Amino acid sequence: MLKFVTSKFTLAIILLSSIILSLCLLQAETKLSASIDWFDVATEGALLLLGLSWLALILQARPAGKVTQLLIFGLLGYSLGCYMDLLDEFFINHSLPAWFALIEKLPTPIGLLTLTCGLWLWREEQITINEQLRTREQFFRQHKLVDRVTKIYDARAIRHQIALNSSKPLSLIMLDIDNFSEINQRNGFNRGDRLLTDIAQMLTCQLRSQDLVCRFAGDRFIILLPNCSATFSQAMAAELQRAIAHLGCHASSAHIHYDPQTEKQSQDVDSLISHINKEMERVKQARAWPQAI
Ligand SMILES: Nc1nc2c(ncn2[C@@H]2O[C@H](COP(=O)(O)OP(=O)(O)OP(=O)(O)O)[C@@H](O)[C@H]2O)c(=O)[nH]1
């Protein structure tokens, strides 16, 4: 439903209806210059310009996604309402079609309602990002264990965090970008760095506040999910792979689950890391095998 409401198709309909309304209004009787309230024209024109400038700012500042679509749709509705109010100033009311009075009232409230939904989701998104940044910032200050390129935790940091969390059930996800050396060769090392940074930021935004992501090595990331089930981590791994695909590359994923209460032998950080590395090698081999035959 949300997708339908915010689809490009709907945006096209709003633009089209704006054009149709303009044509309709062209047939109505215009007011004499002396009877036009120029103060109203100025204020309504200013509101329209403000709506359009907010739209331009949103388009510039926000990444593509559900929240941005809601904000755009809301601002388009609001701007359309302002535009119709402005046109209204230039035409004699009784010469306008009867349905115009009804239609005129709709875009602004619908637009403002959608905008409010968008702002609410933006707020939720920002709270998650702030929480992640605060955790990262605190850890950075304490240990200076941050990767130079992506500015997320490095391998030493995740080892430290796994050790801290290993008395409770935890899951680890490893993501390894496929054919990253080719991406480097094709686009250059700097673009490769940029892609690693984008992936790191995207992963940070996708996780729960208690999860941690690190750049483990080259094109390999590890995510620590404390207190979660194996099913949850499996679903999360698939979700993260899909999100990485949106950035134009593919990642292999491996995941392990460790519950100290049910395991026969307790595992330390090294054995957990070695376990997930082996899982990843198995996944990579399974991927390479069909290509080899
Ligand atoms: N841009 C950039 N590249 C890096 C960095 N660190 C490592 N790399 C590159 O990452 C690539 C990793 O190569 P491989 O381990 O062979 O992985 P791959 O090419 O993705 O191959 P598969 O994993 O088998 O799909 C190498 O080409 C490294 O040069 C870095 O900090 N920035």
TrEMBL record:
It is an enzyme of class 2 (transferase). It comes from the Bacteria. Pfam families: GGDEF (PF00990). The keyword Transmembrane applies. GO terms for biological process: cell adhesion involved in single-species biofilm formation; negative regulation of bacterial-type flagellum-dependent cell motility. The chain crosses the membrane at residues 38-58, 70-87. Residues 168-293 form the GGDEF domain. One of its GO terms (cellular component) is plasma membrane. One of its GO terms (molecular function) is diguanylate cyclase activity. Its EC number is 2.7.7.65. It catalyses: 2 GTP = 3',3'-c-di-GMP + 2 diphosphate. Keywords: Membrane, Transmembrane, Transmembrane helix. This is diguanylate cyclase. It comes from Shewanella piezotolerans (strain WP3 / JCM 13877).
